[in-house]
Amino acid sequence: MELMTFICPKHPTVWDGNGFSECFEHMVLGFGVNVVSIIMIVVLGLSGRNARTSTRIAQKRHSEKVFLHLVPASGAFLPLYDITLLLKRALQGQSTVYHEWFFKCSQFSVWTTIMLFSKCDIWFFIFYHRILCFWWIAKPILGIPHLQTMFSSLKVVRNFKESCSFVLDVVFVIYLNIGRVIRESSSNRKCGSLEDSLISCNLEIEDDLGDSGNTCSYWHTLTFKSINSVMDRGVLKQLDFEDLIQLPIDLNPSTCHSTLQCCWVAEQRKNFSHPSLFRAVCCAYGRPYFRLGLLKVLNDCIGFLGPLLLNKLITFLQQGSSNFEGYIFAISLGLISIFKSFLDTQYTFHLSKLKLKLRSSIMMSIYQKCLHVSLAERSKFSEGEIQTFMSVDADRTVNLCNSFHDMWSLPLQIGVALYLLYTQVKFAFVSGIAITVLLIPVNRWIATLIASATEKMMKQKDERVRRAGELLKNIRTLKMYGWDLLFTNWLMETRSMEVKYLSTRKYLDAWCVFFWATTPTLFSLFTFGVFTLMGNTLDAATVFTCLALFNTLISPLNSFPWVINGLIDALISTRRLSSFLSCSEHSSESVQIAGSSSTLLNIDQPDFIFQRNAVVFRDACCCWSKSNEGQSSVLNQITLNLSKGFLVVVIGEVGSGKSSLLNSILGEMQLTHGSIRSFGSIAYVPQVPWILSGTIRDNILLGKDYHAERYKEVLQTCALDVDISQMLGGDLAYVGEKGVNISGGQRARLALARAVYHGSDIFLLDDVLSAVDAQVAHWILYNCIQGPLMDKSTRVICTHNIQAISSADMIVIMEKGHMKWVGSLSEFSVSPYSTISSKKELKISSPVVRQENGRSTSAKAEENIQEENGVNISGKAQESIEIEMRKEGKVELSVYKNYAAFSGWPIAIAICISAVLMQASRNGNDLWLSHWVDNIKGNHHTMYSTSFYLVILCVFCISNSLLTLVRAFSFAFGGLRAAVQVHNKLLNKLVNAPVHFFNQTPSGRILNRLSSDLYTIDDSLPFILNILLANFIGLMGIAIVLTYVQVLFLLLLLPLLYIYSKLQFYYRSTSRELRRLDSVSRSPIYASFTEALDGSSTIRAFKAEEIFMAKFTENVSVYQQTSYSEITASLWLSLRLQLLAAFVISFVAVMAIIGSHGSFLVSFGTPGLVGLALSYAAPMVSLLSSFLSSFTETEKEMVSVERVLQYMDVPQEELQGRQFVEADWPFQGQIEFQHVTLRYMPSSPAALHDVTFTIAGGTQVGIVGRTGAGKSSVVNALFRLSPICGGFILVDGINVADVAIRDLRSHFGVVPQSPFLFEGTLRDNLDPSRVTSDAKIWHALEKCHIKEEVETAGGLDSLVKEAGSTFSVGQRQLLCLARAFLKSSKVLCLDECTASVDTQTASVLQSAISSECKGMTVITIAHRISTVLNMNNILVLDQGILVSLTNLFFPHTRDADSIRIHLQLGGSKDMCG
To answer: Could you give the CA distance from residue 942 to residue 1045 in angstroms, rounded to a whole number?
Structure first.
C-alpha cells in the first residue's frame, strides 16, 4: 500500500469498486509492463552481442522485414498521437494527469526500441527468444483491464485508438510465436545454422502450420499462396501431375482409409446385424467436423454485423451529423467484410480437406471390400450396382459434410435474421413468417417425393450402367450377332425410366426453387405492408436494413432445398454402401485356407490324412448364394482327398460342376454343409483368362520380384518366348484391357505363366488347354504341367484333353454336382467310365506324343505367329492403347453452343429473357421502396396514399414470382432435354463405332463418360448454370443501380473490371487444366476397379490383395492431389474476390459519408437512394466471388460435355449399303475370297495376305492353323468387323461391302469362341426378338444336349445371371450353339465352339452340326483334328497366308492319319494335333 501511495499519491487504491483504478492501470499494468519489456529487449540485445562472433547472421525474410517495420511504426504512431494531444491540452492550460504521460511515453518507447533493435544483426536472437515470446503473450492479457475501462466511457474515437493499439500487440505476439516455430522447424532440417545453436529443437509443431509437409508462413496459409507456383505454370503451359501441389500427409489415402476402417470394424462389432456407415464416419471424422462447426458459428454470426453496421450508417446519414463516427462505421463495414472473407475461406478449406479424406477412405473401403468379398457373397449385387457405389454413391456420401452443417447453420442464420427484423419492424415480420410456416409442409411433401424419385432413379442408373458395361464388354460379339441395335434399344428403355424419375426430381426441385426464391420478395411485401398498415412510418434506415437482412435470407432460403436433397441423397447412398460393406468377406470358418506351416484346429481326422493330402473335402455342399441354400446345391456331398504332388484331372459333361469344384477350394462359393480344407499356397488359372492392363512382365510377375532365370524358364515352358520375341518391346510390350490386343491362346498361356512363376503348392487350372492348338497343348502338358517347375506341386486341372487324362495320377468324374467316380489312371482304364475318352481321340493323339518328344518339334509348337482374336501383335500394335487425351486451353465456345443446341435454342433464349426480367422486377421493387421512403414528408404524409404504394409493390412482387417460376421450369426442362440428347447421341455414336475403336479404348474410359460425366450433365451442370446466370444478372443489376445512385462509382468500375478480368484470366487458365487433370486421374480409378471386379477370385487366390490395394492407393493419391490443388486454387480466387468486394463496400460507404457533408459538386441522391446503394454494395462480397466461382465451376463442369463430345467424333462403321438383299439371302451360301488382304492397323503386318479361296454352298469347311495364324481374321473379314484393304468377298455373287452392315451380319449365324450370355431370361438370350416358338426352342436345346440342364434351372423363363454365370462355360457354348440353330441361316461360323465341352459331348455335337446343318455353309475354326474329321474341306492358314485347301470328299481321306498327310503335303506339318 505504501508503494501505491508513492506511485499514485492522489489515488493510492488498486480497486475503486467498479474495476482497477485509472492510476493503477496506467502506472502498473501500463508503464510497469512497458518498462519490463524495454529492459528485456535491451538485456537480450547485450547478451546476444557475445554470440555474434561465433555464429552467422540470420537473414530476414521478406515478410519479416515488412512486419518488423510496419507493425512497430503503426504502434509508435498511436501513442505519439496521444502525446501530441496531451501536449496540446497542456499548452492550452487544460489539466492532464501525470500517469497518462508515463503510460503513453512508455508505449512509444517500447515500439521505438523494437524498431531500433530490429536493425541489429542479432535481431533474431532478441525477438525469437523464448522468454520474450512468452512475455509478449502476457503483455496483451495485462492490457485487457485498461481496454475494458476505455470501452465503458463510450467515446468512439478513443475506443477505436485503444482497440487498434491492443490489436497491434496481439498481432505482434502471434507473429513472433509463429515465426519462432517456423524458424525452429527449419533448423531441424538444416544443420550448422545459427538457429541450431540458439533454439531448442524439442518444440512440438502443429500439423496445420505446414502445407504439404513444407513449412510456410501463416500468412501464406491464410492467403493460399502455395498455389501460386502452380498457377504461374498454368498460364504458360499445359499442366501435368508433377506440377501440382504436394499432397499433405493427413490427406494420404492410406491414412484416411485406416481411420475409417478402424471405426467401421468397431461399428460392425457393436451392430453386427445392421452396421451403419454413417455412424462409422461420425466416429472417424466427427471431432474435426465438430470443430469446423464452431468456426462456422463464428462465421455466421459475423455475417450479421454487416446489416447492423449498415443500420447505424444509414441512421447517421439521416441525422445529417458531421461527426467522425460516420467514417468509423464506413471503415468498419469494410473491415468486417475482410475478416469474414478469411473466416469463410478457411472454413471452406478445412471442410474440403475433410471431404477429401472421407472420399478417399470410402473409395478405398469399397475397393478393399471388392478384393475380399467372395463371388458367392458378391452375387447379391450386380456389377453395375457396384460400379455405381464407386462412381456416384461415394461422392454423394461425401456431400454429407456440406449438408449436415448446413442443416443447423441455415436455420440459425434464418432465426438470427428474423430476430434482427423484429428489432426493426416489431411484430410486422410475423406476416412474413406465416408464409414461411405455410411452405414448410409443402416443402416436406416435396422432399419426400424427391427422396422416392431419387431412390428409383438410382436403381435405374445402376441398371443402365450395368447394361452399358455389358454392351461395351461384349460389343464385338453383339456386332457379329447383329444385336447391337437391339441391346441399344434395351439400354434406351432403361435410360427412359431413369430420365422419368430424373425429370420428376428436377421439376420438384424447380418448385422448391420457386417457393424459396420468392419467399424473400413475399416476405418484404407482407412485412412492409403490415408495418405501414399498423400505423408505422417507413424510413430509409428501417427499409434498407430490412432489405440487407432479406438479402442475407436469400442464400440460406435458396440453399435449403438443395441441402435437403443432398442430405437425402447422402443418407440413401450411405445405406446402400453400408449393405455392401457389411458383406461377409472371403475367409470364413467353413472354408479354411492355411499356410504350409499353419496348424489347423478342430480337425477330427488322423494327422496322417492331412500330412499327405493337399485338399480334403468332407461331405461338402456348396451353392453360389445364400438365397440358394434351401434349393439344390451346385456341389452335393463331396468327399474327396487330393494327395500332395498328384496331377488330378477333373472331367465330366458340361455343367457337371468341374469349375465349381475349383471355386469351392478357393472359398468363392457358399459352403452350406461339411468342410473343405486346403494346405499350402494356391495359384489359379480361370477358364476365362484374366489379363491386366499393363506389360507382359507385369501380368506374369503380379507384384512378385523379378528373377531373370526363373522368368526365362517360365516363358519357355509356357511356349511364350517366341511370341514375346515378335512383340515390339518384348516382355515390356503393353497388353490392353482384358488382353484385347493378344490372341485367345496367348491370353491362356499368359495366365498360366503367372501361376507357374508364383510357384505355389497347389495349382488350380480350369481348362487351360482348350484355347490353344494341339501342338502347343502337348508342349504345355509335358514341359509345364508335368515339368520340373510344377511336378512337385499338387495340380488340379479341369480338362477334356485326352493326353492330360492319360497322364493323370488321379481322375475325378463329376456329374450334376456330384462326384460320380474317383480313382487312378489304371483303375479308370478298366472302369465303365473309360468310354469318356474315345478311342478315336487316343488314336489321333498317339502319333503326336511319339513325334513331339524332341526339342525341335517342341520349338515349332512354341511358335506363335500374330493374332487370332482380331488385333495384330507386331510393330505399332503396342501403341494402340494410348494415354487418355485431354484438350488444352479454355473450353471452346463450340462446347457451349453444342450444349445449348442439346437443350434447344428456344429454351435457352427463354431462360435468359426470364432471368433478365426477373432481376429487373426485383430491382424495380427495391427502387420503388426507396422512392416511397423519399416521398415521406412531415407528419408522415406522402405524395400518394399508402395503398397506392402497396399495390405497385404487390405488382412487382407478383411479376418477380411468376418470372422465377418460368426460369426454374425452363432450366429444368432445358437440362433434362440436354441430358436426353447427349446420352442418346453418345450411345448411338459408340454403338456405331468399329470394333477397332473398342480395342484401342479401355472400357473404363467409356464407362467414365457414361457414368460420372453423364451424371454431371444430368444433375450438376444445369444446377451450376442456373447459379451462374442468376449471379451474372444479379451483378448487372447491382452495377446499374450503383451507377444510377452514385455517378462516381463509374470511376471505380473501370479499374475494378480490369483487376477482375486479370484475376479471372490468371485463375481460369489453371482451373481448366486442373479439372481436366481431375477427370483424367479419375479414369484409372474406374479402370483398375473394373479390373479388380473381373479378377477378384484370381487376386485372392494369389494373395495379391495388398499389391492391388497399393496400386489403387497410388491412383487415389493422384486423384487426391489434383482435387486438393483444384480446391486451393478455387479458394485463392475466392479470397481475393471477397477482398476486392470489401474495398467496393468501403468506397461506397466512405463516398456516402463524404457526400452527406455536401462538400462534393456532384450530389449522391436522396437518403433512400444512398441506403439502396449501400444495401446493394453488401451482397457484392458474395456475388463477385460467387459469379467467378460459378463461372469457373461451369467451365469445369463443361469439361464433361467436352469429354462426351470427344466420343461423338469417333470413327463410324459404314452402315448404309448400295445393295439390297432379300430376307432369305444368302440362297446357296457360296463364299468367295478374292485376293483379300486385311490389316488391323495401317502400320501392322497383314493378318490376311492375298487370300483367295471359294467355298461351295452347302459345304462344311474347317479352318486350321497355329494360334495367331489368321483363322479368326477370316470371320472378321466376312462379318466386316474390320475393313479389308484389298480384294473383295462375295456371298452368292454379292459383294459383302455393298450390303448394309447390320443386314449383312443379321443374315449370318455365328457361335463365338467366348460364349456370350447376358442378364435376363433364358428365352431372351436364345431369341431376343421373340420370333421363335417355344417348341422350336426346346427342340434346338435338345439337339445341343442342354435341354435337361435348362429344365433343372427353371425353364425358358429362368433368369440368367450377369455374364451367364448361372451356367458353366461349356453350357454357355451349347446355348450359343442352340441360338445359332434357331437362326436357320445359310451361313454359319463356328469359332471352336466345342473347346470347353467334354470329348463325348463334342462328338455328339459334331454329329448334330453335320445333320442339322445339311444344306448350310458351315465354317469351323478348329484346334482339334476330331473337329474337322467330317468336314468337306480344310483351309490351312499360316501367318495370314493360305497354305493349302484340302478336299475331304473322298472316303479314303476320312481318317486322322490321312488328314495329317494332307496337311503335311500342304505345308503345315504342325497345324493340328
So the answer is: 22
Nearest Cα residue to 315 out of 240, 394, 424, 228: 424
Residue 718: is it exposed, middle or buried by C-beta count within 10 angstroms (0-12/13-18/19+)? buried
CA 504 – CA 509 distance, rounded (Å): 9
Beta strands in 172-306 (DSSP E): 210-211, 214-215
> Are 329 and 1146 contacting, i.e. CB atoms less than 8 angstroms apart?
no
Q: How far is Cα 1128 from Cα 229, in angstroms, rounded to an integer?
A: 12
What is the C-alpha to C-alpha distance for residues 1323 and 1358, in angstroms, rounded to an integer? 8
What mean pLDDT is predicted for residues 1141-1145?
A: 78
8 A C-beta contact, residue 1465 and residue 1457: no
Please give the pLDDT value at position 3.
58
Contact in structure between 645 and 613 (CB atoms under 8 Å): no
Determine phi and psi for 1133, rounding to 5 degrees: -70, -45
Cα–Cα dist 283/280, whole Å: 5
Give just the sign of the alpha carbon dihedral 378, 383, 387, 392. Answer: negative
Best CA proximity match to 348, nearest among 405, 390, 306, 391 = 405
pLDDT digits (tens, 9 = 90+) for 579-619: 888 888 766 443 454 333 333 334 445 455 557 888 888 88
Q: Which grid coordinates belong to 1358? A: 429362368
Tell me which DSSP letter residue 1169 carries. Answer: H
Between the CA of residue 963 and those of 223, 562, 587, 960, what are the distances in Å?
Answer: 40, 20, 61, 5
Task: Please name which of 921, 976, 107 lies closest in space to residue 504, comparing C-alpha atoms.
Answer: 976
Report the 10 Å Cβ neighbour count for 171.
Answer: 15
Name, in order, each residue with C-beta under 8 angstroms of 79's C-beta and a sequence gap of 6 or more.
104, 105, 107, 108, 111, 165
3-state secondary structure of 1389: strand
Cα dist from 1267 to 474, 518, 687, 719, 746, whole Å? 22, 71, 18, 11, 8
Q: How do residues 1283-1335 score in pLDDT, each as one tens digit?
A: 888 899 999 989 999 999 888 888 898 888 778 888 888 888 888 888 888 88
CA distance 480 to 1278: 10
Yes or no: say if 1087 and 1111 are a contact pair by the CB < 8 Å rule.
no
Q: From CA 933, how far away is CA 1172, in angstroms rounded?
A: 11
> Is the pLDDT assigned to residue 783 strictly greater than 50?
yes
1248 has which bridge partners?
1238
Q: What digits encode the pLDDT tens for the residues 130-184?
A: 777 777 777 777 777 777 676 666 566 676 777 788 778 877 777 777 776 666 5
- Which contacts (CB < 8 Å, 24+ apart) does range 407-412 have? 407/563, 407/567, 408/293, 409/296, 409/297, 409/300, 409/556, 410/556, 410/559, 410/560, 410/563, 411/556, 412/297, 412/300
The residues near 220 (Cβ < 8 Å, ≥ 6 apart) are 211, 226
> Is the bond preceding 1315 in cis, omega lying within 30 degrees of 0?
no
Residue 1039 phi, psi dihedral angles, 5° rounding: -60, -40
Query: 1049-1094 vs 228-236: helix axis angle to the nearest 10?
Result: 90
Q: Which residues contact 1282 (CB under 8 A, 6 or more apart)?
A: 870, 994, 995, 996, 1238, 1240, 1273, 1276
Q: Which residue has the higher pLDDT, 865 or 1179?
A: 1179
How far, CA to CA in Å, does 893 sit from each of 134, 900, 1018?
A: 59, 11, 20
Q: How many CA atoms lie within 13 A of 335 on its CB side?
A: 9
Please check the confidence at residue 66 and state whether its pLDDT lies above 60: yes
CA atoms within 13 A on the CB side of 136: 28
| Cell reading at 158 | 478513443
pLDDT at position 275 over 70: yes
For the cut 50, the answer to whether the pLDDT of residue 322 exceeds it is yes
d(CA 1429, CA 838): 14
**What is d(CA 1097, CA 668) in angstroms, rounded to the nearest whole number?**
7
